[in-house]
Amino acid sequence: MSTSLTSLTTNLPTYQPIVSGPEPWNEETVMFTPYFDDQILLPDTANCRAIETFFKMAGIDYLKEQRVNAEFMAPHGKVPLIACGSFLISDLDRISSFFKEKGQGIGDVSYVYYVGI
Q1: What domains sit in the chain, N to C, each tagged with a CATH number?
Q2: What is the pLDDT of residue 75?
């Protein structure tokens, strides 16, 4: 009995990430990025710096780890990637939404805004 790969992959369930819930903000947040010296692209650099800036302005302690395979660790293949408790979130927009859902913010502003030039 032969089963094709296509028939196996078409019946897989799809999962949507849950970014809100009863779990409070985890104090041991880790941000994963590619190496800034020779591996990261300019748009990814801007996104990583935006999240770093938000962490600093909001007074959130975090650990930054540079990895060769950061974009491959990410659920959506985009950096930056943060691990916060049981959550693994990648991409600037998704991380910004996560901050908002968890009530992390800077004064009255609880969202990270990206300004394109």
Answers
A1: 25-117 (3.40.30.10)
A2: 86
Mapped to the 3 state alphabet, what secondary structure does the chain carry? CCCCHHHHHHCCCCCCCCCCCCCCCCCCEEEEECCCCCCCCHHHHHHHHHHHHHHHHHCCCEEEEECCCHHHHCCCCCCCEEEECCEEEECHHHHHHHHHHCCCCECCECCCCCCCC
pTM beyond cutoff 0.70 = no
113 Cβ contact partners less than 8 Å away, ≥ 6 residues apart: 96
Mean pLDDT by 10 residues, the chain (117 residues): 49 48 74 88 91 88 91 89 90 87 65 52
